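User: Could you go from structure to sequence for me? I need the amino acid at each position, not a summary. Structure tokens:
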């Protein structure tokens, strides 16, 4: 059996923000991530401190050194003397700047502050948190871009309080519908799709409709939630997964070394 595994995340790009859906291609995920991250950076100074700092914390944890430096300079306002303090990237008395970082120092920081979650879950968490901080227009442009991806894709957007909305998207030139083989939802999270069993997103055997399916996800506690979905279409399995960070993820705290 052939298995095609699809992730909703890709390396972070500092591409110019264009508020329309990017054409589907091999680089579509990068293009979509660029829409979200650039919109987030552009409005960084206007956002609520806690929301923007958590989002930037996750974004830097998900970034390699070179891209992290570009992200810092893109988001940081020259007059902001406390950038990165709440998640330990810079120390009091330092003027925050990517010039203070080298690969070794950044790697030490990631080891101390970013080791709780896997790299893929960290990147998905960054997307979730950046949606909270970005403008509604930017978040919708990113979602519209994601809806152009071929095959199976899934991602989450923030809801009220602890709730979230899971987006499951299927795009194919073939009119036949894929069927759900397996789905998983972490303990404490509940799918709002009718007929879904406990800890499942969709019922097994459900024929997934073309286009977007939006599924409310409620959480009994503000804990991290892992979501996975596997479908079969014309003998090929397609899989996607995503992640909702919890209250213990990307907690703002005192600087590294203090």
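Assistant: Here is the amino acid at each position, in order:
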């Amino acid at each position: 059996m052939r298995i095609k595994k699809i992730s909703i995340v890709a390396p972070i790009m500092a591409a110019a923000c264009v508020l329309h859906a990017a054409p589907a291609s091999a680089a579509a995920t990068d293009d979509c991530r660029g829409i979200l991250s650039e919109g987030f950076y552009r409005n960084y100074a206007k956002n609520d401190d806690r929301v923007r700092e958590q989002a930037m914390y996750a974004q830097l944890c998900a970034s390699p050194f070179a891209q992290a430096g570009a992200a810092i300079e893109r988001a940081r306002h020259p007059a902001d003397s406390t950038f990165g303090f709440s998640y330990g990237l810079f120390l009091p008395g330092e003027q925050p700047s990517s010039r203070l970082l080298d690969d070794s120092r950044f790697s030490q920081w990631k080891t101390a502050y970013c080791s709780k979650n896997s790299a893929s879950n960290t990147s998905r968490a960054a997307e979730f948190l950046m949606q909270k901080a970005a403008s509604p227009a930017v978040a919708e442009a990113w979602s519209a871009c994601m809806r152009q991806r071929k095959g199976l894709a899934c991602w989450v957007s923030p809801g009220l309080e602890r709730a979230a909305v899971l987006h499951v998207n299927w795009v194919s030139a073939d009119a036949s519908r894929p069927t759900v083989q397996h789905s998983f939802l972490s303990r404490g999270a509940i799918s709002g799709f009718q007929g879904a069993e406990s800890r499942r997103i969709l019922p097994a055997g459900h024929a997934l409709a073309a286009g977007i399916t939006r599924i409310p996800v409620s959480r009994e506690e503000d804990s991290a939630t892992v979501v996975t979905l596997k479908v079969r279409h014309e003998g090929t399995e397609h899989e996607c997964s995503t992640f909702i960070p919890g209250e213990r993820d990307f907690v703002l705290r005192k600087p590294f070394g203090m």
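One structural detail worth keeping in mind: The helical segments are 28-42, 49-61, 65-75, 103-113, 119-133, 136-146.
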